[in-house]
Amino acid sequence: MNTIVIDTVTADGEVLFSSGSLPQAEQTFDTVGYLAERARAEGFYVYATFETLGATLSGGVQPVGRVTMDRLDALESEVEAFVRTYQPDGVLLDGYYNMDSDRSYADYLKNGGGEGYENYMLGLSRAAVAAASTSARRAKPGIDVGLLTEAVWANASYDERGSQTSAPFTTRYGGNSDATEYLTDGLAGFAAVKAFGATTDSSMPFEAVAGWWSEALGGTGTPLVIVHAADRAVTEAEGWGEYDQLARQVIEARKLQNFAGSIFNSMKRLQENPKDCAGKLVQYYNDEIKPEHIMTDLTLTKPSQMTYTTFDPNVIFAGATDPNTDATINDQKITIDENGFFSMSVDLEPGLNTFVIRHKGKVYTYNITRQVEVLQEISPGGNMNVDGGTKITITAIAYENSAVYAMVGGTKVAMSPSEAEGDDVS
Which of 45, 148, 322, 415 could form an SS bridge with 296, CB 3.0 to 4.6 Å? Predict the structure, then answer.
């Protein structure tokens, strides 16, 4: 880790910098200045987010007021003052979406000329990004200007150029903005994509989002930074229940052709380190654990069926797991080797045996019914005629602890067990 990104928006959508149009948080001291000073003292680069038109919150993009030329003029001075005051190494522009409102079309008719409504709305968003970028670079030549973007440009179901997602908000059509165009035209030097969905997310899966942006920007050579939802690590959010989600995303991101690094959106959650999620992530970065182990989910090669009936007195469970975290069978830890492989024999009781195997949120339940053959063999068999006083020996192989007796001439004769191995006695 070499950079601290200061999020300049509070949880209530108030900004931590001077703004004439955005709601400002009440502060007893200069929060941004304090964080920047502490980060530099620890040897970190300092980047900061800057809301151009309106706040973007964890609950979604918030609508902004009317975008006017006065607002764009004010934006330039606000960005310039911000950069001159805090001297960040980089600034991440956010909140440049220009969503439709009940006044948008009237404003277009008044100010849009003949360019068309869609182009008018897109143009205002572009103007905001251009104004902020130009002002930042003027205030501090060489500053690294990045463009934060929500996860999805467009869903492919709406625009075939989009990603295989089903996002409720898309930047191109919901936000009337086009980050790919702004980046291609040099309004920002890199993209920072808020890929907050887990790898198994049902609407915005991580690979679909990150892969789309990589392909969209790959031909331009634009560096791609992924913003990971560290605040969701080991929570009930879809796909985030286990330690490995952050590490999995970094592993997948590193495969992208123009990947330039990761931003984790919550230092607090990383410090809390539930299930050692941050610790394992650091170990991965330090090459102390293998990526193939992190990517391993529980697989079982034996038994081949999850529900079956058998006469066997035991069952063998064999398979592979991620050795960085425990696997259990009926809440007992499974012994594995350094690569996560295991093979174990478990005795079966007569009747139904249920085994529940758990690993990284996955649960496999086996229901194995053991049938028992109580009387396997008896000798001698059939009817016999013998002379009086003749001694005969009767042997039987029966299930252990069974009550075994013989009927001789109508008389019940008790039989006693003899030493034998296994479940059967004679």
Answer: 322
- Tokens for 114, please give them: 């003949």
Question: How does residue 56 score in pLDDT terms, banded at 50, 70 and 90?
Answer: low
The separation between CA 121 and the C-alpha centre of its own chain, rounded to angstroms, equals 34
CA distance linking residue 136 with residue 124, whole number of Å: 18
Residue 161 Cα distances to 121, 183, 216, 348, angstroms: 20, 17, 9, 57
Q: How far, in Å, CA of 244 to CA of 234, rounded?
A: 9
At residue 281, φ and ψ (nearest 5 deg) are -65, -45
Task: Tell if the pTM clears 0.85, that is, is over it.
Answer: no
Secondary structure string (H, E, C) spanning 128-154: HHHHHHHHHHHHCCCCEEEEEECCCCC
Strand stretches in 171-288, DSSP E: 190-194, 224-228, 259-264
Contact 233, 240 (CB under 8 A): yes
CA distance 172 to 302: 50
- Between the alpha carbon of residue 343 and those of residues 5, 300, 317, the distances in Å are 47, 10, 6
What pLDDT is attached to residue 343? 97
Q: Determine which helix (DSSP H) or strand (DSSP E) holds 292, and give its type and residue range.
A: helix 291-294
Answer yes or no: are the C-beta atoms of 16 and 32 closer than 8 Å. yes
pLDDT digit string, tens, across residues 133-161: 999 999 999 999 999 999 999 999 999 99
